[in-house]
Sequence to fold (366 residues):
Amino acid sequence: MPQVKMSAGKFRGFKVLADGDGRFRMMAIDQRGSLRRMLSKVLDPDEVGHDDLRTVKKSVVKVLSPYSSATLTDPVYGYPGCLGYIPKDVGLLLAYEETGYTKAGEGGHERRSSLIEGWSARKAKRAGADAVKLLIYWRPEASDETLEHQSSLVRKVGKECEEVDLPFVLELVSYPLLKDELPGGTSRPTPAFAKRKPEIVLRTVQEFSKPEYKADLLKIEFPADLKYTEEYCHGAFDGEKRRALYDLDEVEDFCRMVDEACVVPWVILSAGVEVEEFLANVELASEAGASGFLGGRAIWQGCTKFYPDVEAMEKWLATSGADNFRRLREASRNAVPWYEHRRFGGYPNVLLAGGGGEWYRNYEGL
Fold:
């Protein structure tokens, strides 16, 4: 296989984000809107403020970051209070997207993302980040205007990351859009959306695997909803019975199709599901070719019910949260090391770009 050249910053960044075996066992605590909603269940929603989000994020990082190969947080509420608690041997990813989305399109059902005002990949680099993460909402069926808005954001961030030589981690999230997918007053996905999920995820991965976006690592949704499989549809995860839409053999095929479409390494995200479902997702994705996981709420969300009792919250994190992480490490035991992905074909094939005698002279600084 031809040798693959990586720039110094991206090569080093990948090594730092992964563990010693080249697998990504990463934790996400960059949530803002969803964390605010969690805390609204234990506090007056009108009183949930900056300090509350910052306190929870600090506790999660303090207790669980040592279990991760890298930790993702945000520069608004997370990083300023968490910096001192991220171990020196744990990688750091910083988010670039603003929380939430702007409604667009017919009926306001399309979603348009935006970037954090006053933030940039250059600032993330100077702040010590090992990678930049961008979350983008995507539905191939959205209007041309929305698709161009979303794709232009990805191209912008990809270019910025290339300029400062940081790995670009692109998170791809789908959403209900068509009439029979809209939940109508509930946050639960409809069977129609669950049925289309494999195709949506596959088409999205195919789009953002294009070189114009400059993504180095894709953080993607599981390409099915296990609650709608024959094996789990009787309420295995949440106690609710559903009509089966596919079986596990088909789901394994969906995962393999996604892997074949990814021209760069990929990890699975948790999307707010409970840990038992995420464990199954991680195991299936790892068997299909994923290089690990970047999980958030599935790992730590149970601690928020104890807030504002920080001691009780950290006790839950040190027991149940840590156990969640240990189980996820086991579930990802067959994940593909990033350098074994077919883009690289093995660690000996990965070389430093421009690594000749004049490398130091030709390398572009900030």
In short: The chain has one domain: 4-356. The radius of gyration is 20 Å.
